Structure formats: C-alpha cells, structure tokens
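Task card 7
Instruction: Convert sequence to structure tokens.
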Amino acid sequence: MTERYKVQELLKQIGKQGQKALLRSKIAIIGCGGLGSVLANNAVRCGIGSIILVDSDRVELTNLHRQILYTEEDIGLYKALAAKRNLERINSDVKIDALIARFDYKNAEKIIKNCNLVFDGTDNFETRYIINEFCVKNRIPWVFASVTATLGYVMSIIPGKTPCYKCLMKSFPLAPPTSRTVGVLNAAVNITASFQFLEGLKILLKKSYSKGLLYIDAWNETIEKLQIKRDPNCQVCSKIFKKAQR
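Output:
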C-alpha cells in the first residue's frame, strides 16, 4: 500500500482492508460530463483500481462552468480521452480505459459485464433505461443521479434488493427540463455527484447504503430521502426479485 492513501486509511469506515478492496474494484462511468467529471475525479483520487470511461461527446466551452475535469485547452477533444489524460496526471497507478462511444444495446453488456459497480453520469432517460436493464440482468449494482437547475436526485440500485430505475420511472417523461432549457448550477452538480459517489463507495466497501431516492435542493440547502416502492410487475426487476426469494 502506498503513502498516497494513508489519510484515507485512517477512516474507520475504510481502513487498510477497505483500501485494498477499492484497489481491486472495477467500475464504469457512463457519461463524462458534469456528474461524470466529479465521479471520475473522486474515483481516481481514492484509489479505485480500474475505471472505464464511456462518452461520445467533445468538450465545449459551455461545459467548463461545471465539468471540472476539463480546461480551455481541452475544447474540441473527445471527453473520454481528455478525461483519461487529465486523470492519469492525478493518479498514474489507476488503470483507465476510455471509450469514445455512446452506451447502447450493442455495447452495454460488453462494457459492464466485469464491473463491480456502474455510475450513471448521463443526461438522458434512454441511456439510463439501458444501464438499468443490463445492470439488473447481470446483477451489477449501479447508482443513478441527475441534476436539473438547482435540484439533484440520487438512488442506489442493487438488483434483487432495491427497486430498479424502471420502478422509479415507468415511462419517458414528456419534454423533461434539461440544462439547455432551464440551466444548471455547478454547485448542485458537485453536491449531487459527491453524494452519488459516496453511495457507490459504500456499495464497493459492502457498507450500508441509502435506501430510497435522495432529493437534493442545493439552492435551499435541503436534502430529503424519499421512499420508492418496487413495482411487483416491473418488466426489468420482478424476475430478479422472484429468484432472490427462492
């Protein structure tokens, strides 16, 4: 174990054994924007051993107010590649794979099949449904998060133990607000992603994670925990629950 994690190992919640577990872990971060930047930064700094970054977009000037991994020099570059380069400057011991791709039905299973955890750093419902379907199918925990304006949402999804994303969002919402239509507060992104990462850290360390949906109002500095009921007829997770109960 290197001196790098000495202070982190002093935490009773982590310790030396927990640090070893993190170094053995492999995660995927789907989306390298506002949420993904914070997630990847924290993952590399805390010593998660192997990280897959997935994103098909390029860095734009309008990204820089909230996407903390990038600088003006990165404008025009693919986010996944720029993120990998900048992250390797932080911690060269972590294995980082950058995929310039949109996460879809063709590549989903190949990307996540050997992961211990998946983080949702996306900004669209369609991709989250795909993440949910393949993570539940492969029994891989994942942590959902989204931010709109000053509001954030976080939910840990553990196949066979918690409701899944389909239970939460049974159908696509009509004309949902986005950062392009209502804006987004960078502090709200940072706060939400930090809670999202903390949830993932607990899962990797096999600690107690939050049950339900965290609702974060960054502007008014309030956090609520909302209980989400599992849909017994859910097309995605109902079979997993039935198998878990046998």
